[in-house]
Amino acid sequence: MKVKDNLIILFIIFAVFGMLVTVQIRSTVSMQKQSALTLDYNRLKNQLDSRVKEGERYKAQIAELEHKKEDFLKAYPGTNSSNTLKNDLDYLKFISGLTDVTGEGVVITLNDAENPDLESQMNYIIHDYEIYGIINDLRDAGAQAISINDERLIATSEQICAGPTIKINNNRYAVPFEIKAIGDPDKLHSAMKNSDVVSSLIQYKKRVTVESQSNIVIPKFMNDINGLISKLEVAENESKKEQ
């Protein structure tokens, strides 16, 4: 009996030891997985924080250069020629989208349809070509300045579909898209009311709102303007070549 009792005790000890080892292994594997997920999260968060800080640094540099430019212009003598030069520069900055503008106009909000049919889901989301169409309708109606999600549109701006997002001036945005347009609010509102693009959006139950506002602020183009013209050169006038 004594030998049998000893065997039972040894069996119980080994069983408990085996359970403890199994729990320890599972705990170690779980901690390793959790540690890996934490490292991935921290790495992505650090990358995002770095990009945000880099963007803020660029914005600060642009603002500093703008201040230096304004100080330089103010240092000119108050002659008619210098005033004319400044007025011409202000006008060029305005039409090229390099200055903030304020005025009356319309604000259009675009969003995907709610609860779309999964089999034809692509018909129920906002696409870049639909935004193109609305922008063209606004320009035809006399819009003087346009932005999408506060990204100022200039001559070289593109709206490119990139999966569930759209790239505007090389920055990605997801729905909802807020389009601001400064101009005659009645003409702009009427253009949206009669727009074939807007009618198509509504047909597929995509959400569209158009609101007239009296004090719309559209920020200036904030990207690197030099990068847009790096591959361009001035072509000489043919008449000058002949001379």
TrEMBL record:
Coiled coil: none annotated. The keyword Magnesium does not apply. It comes from the Bacteria. The keyword NAD does not apply. Keywords: Membrane, Transmembrane, Transmembrane helix. Pfam families: DUF881. The chain crosses the membrane at residues 7-25. Gene3D superfamilies: Protein of unknown function DUF881. Belongs to the UPF0749 family. This is Division initiation protein.
